[in-house]
# Entry
Amino acid sequence: MMKTILKLEEAALFILGIYLFSRLSFEWWWFLVLILAPDLSMLGYLFGNKSGAFFYNVFHHKAIALLIYAVGYYFSIEIVQLIGIILFSHSAMDRIFGYGLKYESGFKYTHLGEIGK
# Structure
């Protein structure tokens, strides 16, 4: 039951991200093209689990995403707002599928539990 509630919460946050994106002047295809871009941070794992977890977590941390969005909003810079929205929406989407922030012990070890269990 708790996993379902958490997934519904993340789905609501993903919908919030879509709404915030709709307030920008970008075409919709930008959202579709960029939504997986934060996963490029997984390239950090080429340098080991510690750097992989660090880069993955920076690009999948909702507070960082919200801070980036807020800076873009405050200074009226849409591209910065877009970056924040994509990071936020992607993180919510990942959590719907059980991909959480990573521990340094390996990619499959997340704050939501071990991936694949």
Q: What stands out?
A: The longest strand covers residues 106-110. The chain has a mean pLDDT of 95. The first helix runs from residue 2 to 22. The chain is about 60% helix and 10% strand.
